Amino acid sequence: MTSPGMARRLWALGEPFHALTYFADESRGAGEAAGLTGFWAGYFAFRAAPLGPVGPEVVTATFYNFAPAFVARRVPAVWEVVTPARALEARLAGVDAAVRRLLGDWRGSAEAAEAAGLARAAAEAVEPAGRPLAAANAGLPWPEEPHLVLWQALTTLREHRGDGHNAALLGREIDGVGAHALVAAAGRIDREWLMRARGWDDAAWDAACTALADRGWLDDGQLTAEGTAIAAAIEADTDRLALGPWAALGDPACDRLAELLGPVRRAVVAGGALPDRNPIGVPDPG
Fold first, then answer.
1. Model confidence over 193-214: pLDDT tens digits?
2. Closest to 28 (Cα-Cα) out of 93, 99, 104
């Protein structure tokens, strides 16, 4: 039976390919060509576009870990520049151009077509209930070219995972800034850098740390034994809640997709399209 560990491994393998839409020069260029100036305008427009022209409240709720004021500085202003449909066109154009540079002839290969077919089958098994970002992406029409099918499928699957991660946090009454405080206390990402990347200020961060300390999870900014157990339980629940589509795909197909994604991940990382310092926190698949 497919294990939660497989769900985590496939996320680790596929996430760099998805992240081309954030970090590749071609994606930023496609956003700028559409009128989206600056990294964050492109980020919010591209990621929120499947939801339609939603306001900052919906983006804050579904993305979960951004400070509301940080979101409100970009949304809904981005919809005055592009329609969601135009943003979706631009994000695919950016990914297409990035793949052509980083992976060359792979995009027309039998391996690309096979990976696309497997990932699409998993994405089409996503159950939409309680998964707003996954459902929004699953409702988009499929591109024609295999490398874009693969990108859209992996995007749907990672948003499915993210929706489940948010549920794991919410079930423990951990808000967005609290989640980041736990990550920083675990030493995974620097506090100051993460605050800038998600828009939180010192007051909000310190209040979150106080709340976590009151629950016995932090002591002098470090994880307690209970805090370490909670952080591990959140990750375990995230893996478990991400399992459904992969279980539907089955073990042999999951193993084959992992094999096919390995060279893709390596090409993206080697090409510098996934910065070493980023807030995604994707692990090395090992």
1. 999 999 999 999 999 999 999 9
2. 93
pLDDT tens for each residue of 119-134: 999 999 999 999 999 9
CB under 8 Å to 200, separation ≥6 — which residues? 67, 70, 177, 180, 194
Using CA atoms, how far apart are residues 201 and 127, in angstroms rounded to an integer?
36
Whether a cis peptide bond, with omega within 30° of 0, leads into 76 is yes
pTM for the whole structure: 0.96
For the purposes of burial, counting CB atoms within 10 Å of the CB of 82, is it exposed (0-12), middle (13-18) or buried (19 or more)? buried
pLDDT at 1: 60
DSSP characters for 109-175?
SHHHHHHHHHHHHHHTT---TT-HHHHHHHTSPPPSSHHHHHHHHHHHHHHHHHHHHHHHHHHTT--
Q: What is the mean pLDDT of residues 158-163?
A: 98
